[in-house]
Amino acid sequence: MILAAGRGERMRPLTDHTPKPLLPVAGKPLIVHHIERLAAAGFRQLVINHAHLGEQIVAALGDGAAFGVQIRYSAEAPAALETGGGIFQALPLLGAAPFLVINGDIWTDCDLSTLALNADDLAQLVLVNNPPQHPLGDFHLTENGRVLADGTPRLTFSGIGLYRPALFANCQPGAFPLAPLLRTAMANKQVGGQFHCGRWFDIGTPERLAELNQLLRRNENARVEQQ
Fold it and tell me: Where does the Nucleotidyl transferase domain lie (predicted)?
C-alpha cells in the first residue's frame, strides 16, 4: 500500500493544484518511483489511498498495467483519514496476509524485498538515521532487531513497514494515527525492525524536493557519462 492521501500543506503552493505524489522528481512523478521499486521487489498488487485531488492520481496511474502491477484505490472523503485510519479502511483490499506500507512522500533506495515478520510480530519497521528536521528520532532499535518506544540511541521511522492485519484488530472506522498502535505492539514485544543505511529522503518541503531532484539528476548524468 502506498499512502498518498495527505494534503501536503508544507509543499504549497506546489500542491494547490497537484497532489504531492504526482510532483515530478527526476522526470517522473514521485509515486512512480515507488511503484517501480515495488515492482522490482516482486510486488504485483498495490493499493493506493487518496483524498486531495485524488482523481488526478487515478487518471495518471490507471490500473497499473503500464508498470507491470495491478493498482486498486481506496478513496478517502471528505477528508484524509490519517495513516492508521487510511490503512484500516483499505484492509478489505489488502487481504488477510501481511502487507507492506510505504509513505508516498518519501524517496529511498531501500530494498523492499528484505522485510520479513517474525512469527509472533505484528509489525516490522524500517528505521533510518535522524534527519536534520527530526533530530530526536522516533524509536530505539535493539541489537537483536527489536523496536522499542523508549531507549537510546533513537532512530527515525522511515515510513516503511510490514504489518499484519491483526495490528488493527480493535480499530473503528474514522481518522486516527498509526503510532499509538505501534507503541502498544512494542509494549507487547511484537515489533521488529531493521536499519537502512542507504539513501532516504522525507519530501516535506519544496526545498527538499528540489534537493532530491538535483541529486537524482546528478546521478543520472554520471551514469550516462560512464556509459
Answer: 1-134
